[in-house]
């Protein structure tokens, strides 16, 4: 075995910290500074607002399949549902759940810290996030309802009276909510980054960190650099809407009246929005990549294939994602040479991403695959992500994108790649870590029902949608009307998609029931039910107590993937087991 | 968007420099065992406090914010309806005040390191008052400009001026809150200099950063930045 010469490991040691100790029920469970409680608060809030978005998608699908069945869904409401569904799912559910939820719970535990480095800012981060969610939800009750500008909020239409909420409260609440969200996220994000930098236990070098931490860490760095673009865009749009400036607003006639604005550039907004918007895709994807790597390795009892390459790929994807934003704007009338540049960078991203996919598959190769629920979700993620990624290669090419732009094909693509795929990982991760959070296992039978409904159901929804898109069925349309190019069979397909959407949505109730039921009736999990190596499974108590580690901080002696080690007493060796107690590994010649 | 890309390139360079010291090419699957490393990685330097790292990360976020705003400024300025606006003479005075405020904090940093409480207090108060003067001066500039007819919603140059100075002012205000807290603590009878050392240090770093941001913004408003960009364009083409 290789002995690391002492001193060659960069200092990862910090003094043991003075923990904040709560004095009352309120400071312990409500205004808590414990990252684990904050994580649960983030998750519950995100899932709750996500359920609202789920219902909105039902209403949209019902309108598309059975136009006019519900008379309250008129065009305005349809656009409001679209907008809120998109914005909630991307930002308030996925971003908040991956970084605020999993980040808060897993980072301190996985790197062997007692808590986040700035617990007070961490607490503020959650409450500001909650405020952002409430401001957003207030749109439903405001005069004129929420904004119906589409989740991209493109000006000038988003602040004009033709768009629902454009001249009412809707757009104001949306922009305010986003600004508040970003302020709150920055507080949390600083915590996640600095905890990884400063809070690691002795021996936890960067290259010994589980890939989950790498994914969340990189995604947080990206979010900290990308969200300011959305912040600037929101502030400027608020100025345009409230103070009458012309950052984005060109000279325009609204309802027969010439508006005060003139000369503004709607394209400028698109640049700012997508400068945030594209990294956002990877802000959601990278934590999913990291988590799925750990799920696969643990449940296939095999070390992750190509750990170094996995780390490099995460970092490279993170960096590249900042130079591809304009591939969302091929049809905005930009210079063709720019289109060529952005198509190239977009396709280059496929390389590190493909490396990751190959490595997952090679990890499974000859592994001892346990088809547990987390594994099932991880496998489902791989196929879904490959599907969504391949259509991404189509859309990344300018000549293919132009005819497909604004069709259902795009909707199908991004739902596969950044809707369904990350959600599958979230489910897998919840089935994986729920025993650590609560001390009890989730029910297996209910879990299988939930998995098969979700996996097959989402395919039934989004696979046919590609076909609709190839037919030319446009997205964002309230109803089809008479068209020459859309055959009647497309409508039948729409009905099928809607029925499946209703089924999948209802299937999630099984999951929610399982979460609640298992909290009281689930099988006792014990400290390490999956026989995993990472530190969070080695806590002295389950669920981990305040301070995580009892008297002494853990010391890390090995990487996170010592599974199926030949000659070991068990088939895994946790990270905090010293070399002498485990089995020393022969250095291959 | 080239401004923000340059900023990101700088950030990327810092990250690459940092990652290059993290043994990213190591083979962790072969390296089982020793963690017998000495405290603080074998050097005598004390570890960097987490708050300081946190501040640097935060400055990265603020930097991204302002470089994006400046990117937007250049993109919008390319359109035909852009007229420049005058640079009020008061801005020079404000710039001097902010520079002196930053210098006073640097002085405070030196005093606190040597444990001289009696000279730390005037340094902190000077820095605080000069920063307050800067903010008041900025508001006075706004009033002068409005009185001269350069209102917010008239020309995009005006809109950007008010928005950028406003954003910058809010950041200064946030820094002032922290600085005021430190100053009040410095006047407590029984405080030891070591306990203030970190917060004075952080205030100084933040202040220098916001000064740098202001100087860049000032160059932008005065038109030197566009001259510089034009010069670069000529050199490239």
Strand content of chain A: under 5%
Globally, the shape of chain B reads: flat
Number of strands of chain A: 2
Largest interface: A-B, 75 and 58 residues
Regions with little confidence, pLDDT below 50 for 5+ residues of chain A: 1-14
Structural class of chain B: mainly alpha
Task: Characterize the structure shown.
The complex is a heterodimer of chains A (about 600) and B (about 240). Chain A is mainly alpha-helical and about 600 residues long. Chain A is globular, with a radius of gyration of 24 Å. In chain A, a hairpin with a 2-residue loop joins strand 1 and strand 2. With about 240 residues, chain B is mostly helical. Chain B is about 75% helix and about 0% strand. The longest helix of chain B is centred in the middle third of the chain and has 31 residues. Chain B is flat. Chain B starts with a helix and ends with a helix. About 5% of the residues of chain B have low confidence. The interface between A and B is large, with 75 and 58 residues.
What is the topology?
The complex is a heterodimer of chains A (589) and B (237).
Chain A: H1 25-30, H2 35-65, H3 75-111, H4 119-138, H5 170-198, H6 211-243, E1 253-254, E2 257-258, H7 266-299, H8 307-320, H9 336-364, H10 373-396, H11 398-404, H12 408-438, H13 444-471, H14 488-521
Antiparallel strand pairs in A: 1-2
Chain B: H1 2-20, H2 50-77, H3 90-113, H4 117-147, H5 156-186, H6 193-222, H7 224-236
Helix pairs in contact in B: 1-2, 2-5, 2-6, 3-4, 3-6, 4-5, 5-6
Characteristic key phrases:
A: 589 residues; mainly alpha; 14 helices; 1% strand; B: 237 residues
Give me a quick take on this structure:
Chain A has 14 helices and two strands, in the order ααααααββαααααααα. By secondary structure, chain A is an all-alpha fold. In chain A, helix 2 packs antiparallel against helix 3 (75-111) and helix 9 runs antiparallel to helix 10.
């Amino acid at each position: 075995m290789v002995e690391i010469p002492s001193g060659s490991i960069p200092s990862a040691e910090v003094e043991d910290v003075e923990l904040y100790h709560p004095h009352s029920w309120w400071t312990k469970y409500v205004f808590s500074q414990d990252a684990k409680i904050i994580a649960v608060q983030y998750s519950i809030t995100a899932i709750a607002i996500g359920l609202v978005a789920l219902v909105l998608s039902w209403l949209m699908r019902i309108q598309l399949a059975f136009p006019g069945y519900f008379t309250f869904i008129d065009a305005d409401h349809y656009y409001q549902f679209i907008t809120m569904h998109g914005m909630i799912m991307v930002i308030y559910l996925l971003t908040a759940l991956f970084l605020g939820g999993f980040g808060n719970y897993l980072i301190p535990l996985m790197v062997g810290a007692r808590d986040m480095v700035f617990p007070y800012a961490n607490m503020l981060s959650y409450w500001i996030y909650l405020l952002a969610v409430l401001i957003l939800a207030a749109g439903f009750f405001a005069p004129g309802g929420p904004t119906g500008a589409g989740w991209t909020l493109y000006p000038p239409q988003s602040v004009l009276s033709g768009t629902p909420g454009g001249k009412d409260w809707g757009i104001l609440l949306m922009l305010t909510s986003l600004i508040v969200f970003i302020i709150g996220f920055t507080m949390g994000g600083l915590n996640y980054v600095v905890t990884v930098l400063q809070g690691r236990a002795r021996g936890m070098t960067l290259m010994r960190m589980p890939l989950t931490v790498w994914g969340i860490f990189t995604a947080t760095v990206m979010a900290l650099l990308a969200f300011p673009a959305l912040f600037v865009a929101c502030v400027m749009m608020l100025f345009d809407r409230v103070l009458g400036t012309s950052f984005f607003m060109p000279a325009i006639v609204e309802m027969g009246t010439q508006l005060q604005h003139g000369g503004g550039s709607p394209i400028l907004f698109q640049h700012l929005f997508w400068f945030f918007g594209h990294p956002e895709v990877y802000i959601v994807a990278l934590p999913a990549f990291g988590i799925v790597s750990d799920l696969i390795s643990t449940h296939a009892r095999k070390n992750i294939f190509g750990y170094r390459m996995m780390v490099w790929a995460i970092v490279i994807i993170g960096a590249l994602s900042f130079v591809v934003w304009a591939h969302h704007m091929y049809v905005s009338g930009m210079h063709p040479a720019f289109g060529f540049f952005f198509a190239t960078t977009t396709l280059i991203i496929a390389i590190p991403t493909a490396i990751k996919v190959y490595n997952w598959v090679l990890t499974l190769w000859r592994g001892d695959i346990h088809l547990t629920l987390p594994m099932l979700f991880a496998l489902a993620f791989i196929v879904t992500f490959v599907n969504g990624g391949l259509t991404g290669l189509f859309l990344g090419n300018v000549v293919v994108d132009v005819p497909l732009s604004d069709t259902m094909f795009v909707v199908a693509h991004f739902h596969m790649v950044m809707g369904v795929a990350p959600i599958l990982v979230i489910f897998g991760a919840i089935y994986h870590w729920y025993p650590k959070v609560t001390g009890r296992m989730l029910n297996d039978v209910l879990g299988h029902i939930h998995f098969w409904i979700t996996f097959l159901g989402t395919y039934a929804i989004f696979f046919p949608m590609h076909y609709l898109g190839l037919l030319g069925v446009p997205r964002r349309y309230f109803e089809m009307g008479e068209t020459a190019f859309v055959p009647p069979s497309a409508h039948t397909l729409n009905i099928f998609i809607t029925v499946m959407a209703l089924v999948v949505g209802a299937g999630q109730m099984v999951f929610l029931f399982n979460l609640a039921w298992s909290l009281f009736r689930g099988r006792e999990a014990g400290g390490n039910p999956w026989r995993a190596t990472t530190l969070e499974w080695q806590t002295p108590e389950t669920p981990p107590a305040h301070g995580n580690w009892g008297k002494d901080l853990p010391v890390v002696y090995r990487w996170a993937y010592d599974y199926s080690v030949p000659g070991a007493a068990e088939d895994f060796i946790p990270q905090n087991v010293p070399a002498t107690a485990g089995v020393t590994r022969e250095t291959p010649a | 968007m080239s401004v923000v890309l340059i900023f990101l390139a700088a950030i990327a360079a810092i990250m690459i420099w940092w990652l290059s010291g993290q043994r990213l090419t190591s083979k962790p699957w072969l390296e089982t065992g020793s963690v017998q490393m000495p405290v603080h990685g074998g050097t005598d330097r004390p570890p960097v406090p987490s708050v300081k790292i946190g501040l640097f990360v935060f400055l990265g976020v603020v930097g991204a914010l302002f470089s994006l705003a400046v990117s937007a400024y250049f993109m919008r300025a390319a359109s035909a309806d852009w007229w420049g606006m005058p640079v009020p003479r008061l801005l020079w005075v404000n710039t001097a005040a902010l520079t002196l405020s930053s210098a006073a904090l640097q002085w405070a940093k030196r005093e606190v390191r040597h444990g001289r409480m009696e000279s730390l207090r005037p340094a902190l108060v000077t820095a605080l008052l000069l920063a307050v003067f800067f903010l008041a001066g900025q508001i006075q500039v706004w009033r002068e400009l409005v009185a001269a007819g350069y209102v917010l919603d008239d020309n995009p140059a005006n809109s950007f001026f008010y928005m950028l100075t406003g954003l910058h002012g809010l950041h200064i205000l946030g820094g002032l809150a922290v600085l005021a807290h430190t100053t009040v603590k410095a006047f407590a009878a029984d405080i030891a200099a070591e306990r203030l050392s970190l917060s004075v240090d952080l205030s100084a770093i933040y202040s220098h950063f916001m000064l740098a941001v202001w100087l860049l913004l000032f160059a932008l408003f005065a038109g030197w930045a566009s001259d510089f960009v034009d010069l670069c364009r000529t050199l490239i083409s």
